[in-house]
Design goal:
This is Putative hemagglutinin/hemolysin-related protein. Helices cover about 10% and strands about 40% of the residues. It has about 400 residues and is mainly beta. The chain has two domains: about 70 residues, Immunoglobulin-like; about 260 residues, Jelly Rolls, CATH 2.60.120.200. The strands form four sheets. Strands 8, 9, 12, 13, 15, 16, 17, 18 and 22 form a nine-stranded mixed sheet that branches. Strands 7, 10, 11, 14, 19, 20, 21 and 23 form an eight-stranded antiparallel sheet that branches. It is elongated.
């Protein structure tokens, strides 16, 4: 009997202890950890549009990478698509996406596009970077002085290639003779290829040892127009040029002999005159008033040059050389779509009409030397290539 009482007493005490512990637990407050359901925020910049430089297939683009924020410290932002700032972006559209993730795993994202474009052929190459369009005006291509040089046929309706019929009758500067058979159209280019003759050619009492060529527009160039070409120089001592030549006549006028050099360079330097020691990596422009007996207003030839020294050789790639002959006294020069230099003090008012000219010639200040490549150079080495020539004028909208 005593054992049963003892057993029941023990059970009662155990039940009391369990009940007491249970009551004590219910009196304590549990720690509640809040659940973060708030997404972080992130904002990208607007889309970026850029044009490639001449001869390039991509463009380096810099932008500010977005950084997300959150109501709780510790959110992390990462780029999940596209290219980092400072990368070379290919032609086309690249979408850059950034995602911010907070500690709770909530995410937010944003995207923006980098659009890399080739400049359009329906407006000047430099129109985006500085060739202004006056209010109420638009640039219109002058087709008779523009050529994409597609196909394989030289357009004799637009261009002279025979010095005997271009109205100037200049056959070259010795020792290089201008010959039309050095001019071809192929592979999307106007090609002017230089050569060394197997034997000298005697023309007009002069022995010519090398050959070049000259091409001129049949339609005259005028003030107010914009002129541009995409050109890669040859690798020889001979020139690669793009300029405007003006006729002069002491009897019928005009008596002023002007010359507007948009670009004049050589492919390789030799025993070059000191003033031309960068002429294989240069954007060299000039305005000339050449001496003529009947031009009595000046004594001697006068010039007003402007230039930009390049970091690359003129023969290393295509460059786009542009000229806005804005007025008779203001001429602006553009390189790969950007303003490079200007001439605002020409030696005369450039108010005459001239002819676009592409001449590949020799100079006495950069003579042929023993390291000549005329016998060993490839077609590419010996050829100045013009991808296109374009002329624009302003018209009312």
């Amino acid at each position: 009997m005593f054992q049963k009482i003892e057993k029941y007493t023990f059970l009662a005490l155990a039940l009391f202890v369990i009940t007491a512990c249970s009551n004590n637990d219910s009196d304590e407050k549990e720690e509640v950890i809040p659940i973060d359901t708030t997404k972080p925020t992130i904002t990208c910049e607007s889309s970026i549009s850029v044009f490639i430089d001449a001869g390039k297939n991509d463009a380096i683009v810099n932008y500010t990478a977005p950084v997300g924020t959150d109501n709780v410290l510790g959110a992390v932002t990462a780029q999940t698509a596209g290219l980092a700032s400072g990368s070379s972006f290919p032609i086309g559209t690249t979408t850059n996406t950034f995602v911010t993730t907070d500690k709770a795993g909530n995410t937010a994202s944003c995207s923006f596009d980098v659009v890399v474009m080739e400049p359009s052929g329906d407006k000047p190459y430099a129109v985006v970077d500085g060739v202004e369009v006056p209010s109420g005006k638009k640039w219109v291509k002058v087709e008779d002085m523009s050529d994409e040089f597609d196909g394989t046929t030289f357009d004799d309706n637009k261009w002279h290639r025979y010095p005997s019929s271009d109205g100037f009758s200049w056959i070259g500067r010795p020792p290089a003779l201008f010959e039309a058979d050095n001019v071809t159209v192929a592979n999307g280019n106007l090609n002017i290829t230089v050569e060394k003759f197997d034997a000298p050619k005697r023309v007009n009492g002069i022995d010519w040892t090398h050959g070049g060529a000259i091409v001129r527009s049949k339609i005259t160039a005028k003030p107010g127009y914009y002129y541009e070409c995409k050109m890669q120089a040859n690798k020889t001592i001979m020139s690669s040029t793009f300029w405007i030549a003006f006729k002069q006549n002491c009897n019928t006028g005009p008596v002023r002999k002007l010359e507007l050099d948009i670009q004049e360079c050589v492919g390789r330097l030799t025993n070059t005159a000191a003033w031309a020691d960068n002429f294989d990596q240069i954007y060299a422009s000039n305005t000339w008033r050449h001496e003529r007996d009947c031009d009595t207003e000046v004594t001697g030839s006068k010039q007003s040059p402007a230039k930009t020294i390049l970091t690359e050789k003129n023969n290393s790639r295509y460059f786009v050389y542009g000229c806005w002959w804005k007025s008779p006294t203001e001429i602006l020069f553009y390189l790969d779509g950007k303003l490079s230099h200007s001439i605002t003090n020409p030696p005369a008012d450039f108010d005459l009409e001239g002819h676009i000219t592409m001449a590949i010639e020799t100079y006495d200040w950069n003579p042929i030397d023993a390291n000549t490549i005329f016998d060993t150079g490839s077609f590419e080495d010996l050829t100045t290539k013009y991808d296109w020539v374009r002329t624009w004028k302003l018209e009312n909208q």
